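Data availability (excerpt). All sequences and predicted token strings are deposited with the supplementary files. A representative entry, Aspartate aminotransferase family protein, is shown inline so that the format can be inspected without opening the archive.
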Amino acid sequence: MTKKFTQSNQMFKKVKQVIPLASQTFSKSYLQYVKGQAPLFVTRAQGAHIWDVDGNEYIDMINGLLPVILGYQYPAVDKAIREQLNKGITFSLSSTLEYELAKLLVKHIPCAEMVRFGKNGSDATTGAVRVARAYTGRDHIAVGGYHGWHDWYIGSTARSLGVPKSTRALTHTFKYNDITSLKKLMARHKLAAVILEPMNYVEPQDDFLHQVRKLTRQHGALLIFDEIITGFRYHLGGAQKLFGVTPDLATFGKSMGNGMPIAALVGKRKYMKIVDDIFYSFTFGGEALSLAASIATIKEMERKKVIPAIWKKGKYLQMTVNKLLKQNGLEDIISVAGKPCWQVFIIQDARNSNALEIKTYIQQELLQRGILWLGQHNMSFSHTQKDLEILISAYKGILPELKKLLDNGKLTQALRGKPITNIFKVR
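Structure token line:
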């Protein structure tokens, strides 16, 4: 049965009149979906499935852009939230849950000796940069990944409109796995910090992370790992535990709350103590529902060995899809990269079609088969083997047709709506 999106399309017309972009998040907006042929609004979610306003059900391979690590409406987490709701949400004094969660983070994360909380990843990364500037007395920052929406970072991207030139001048980008590009920055600027995602979908090569650690020590700059994605997904102790490289500061978010809004800035005591003197303060920093959810999430991950289970399911899916791509002669155009817990489709331009058109075609066909997809496999503990087999079956139907369309130069005609749009590329 062909899925219809009548209610989504009608609601979009109304919503965009009062909400810019008709969404709170670029990556959840209409720009990321084939125009007119995709769901734009959700009504509910359970496990690894969601339902849109037209009543269509999907296996969700996005999972809220990675925070939903256990699954939607996960019993142990929802129970903790409901119990805390009966006690209160935001108080006039600090909650004891702040200490309980901080101790859990210190237990698992190698660099964590002290902890402060925030509500999103940008809170934590901005806090880390401010700590580094205060500690070193320097202003310049080197960035190697995506680090949020605040001025100090976003000014270094194509989305810099509204950021003062004076702010933009203090942030400098370097290429991941290119130690020479970082050395050149360090030769030109006295850096307060180097902040990077320790891994995205590209593996660190040639001891890259160890080399960055050595360089920052030599130049008196702090090393900050942005573990908003890797934390509590790659390992309970983050990528720093996985790769054996300990930064001075690190930021966590997304998976640590299973969908609740919470982030953390952690680090060595000698750096974190300066938080007493800078301004890193939020009315909702100690909001208790999110703290309770995070504690429950991490304890559940400890009890049920969640991360190894996600890696196992993800490895099976990743290997199978890459095998299908090869069988269909598409391996030179498409590959599924990254660690099994977070896989990313790397799509190249083909002779007659560009990468965004190819991605759009795969998306529109997956949507019709009941799969919500943004070019990634964001694995959750609630994805079942049946879910994976349904997804694999969908690829088995789509990839041969994609190959034919590319060979015949007819992919563009097969698109049922306007192709999706790149926001900006940082990974």
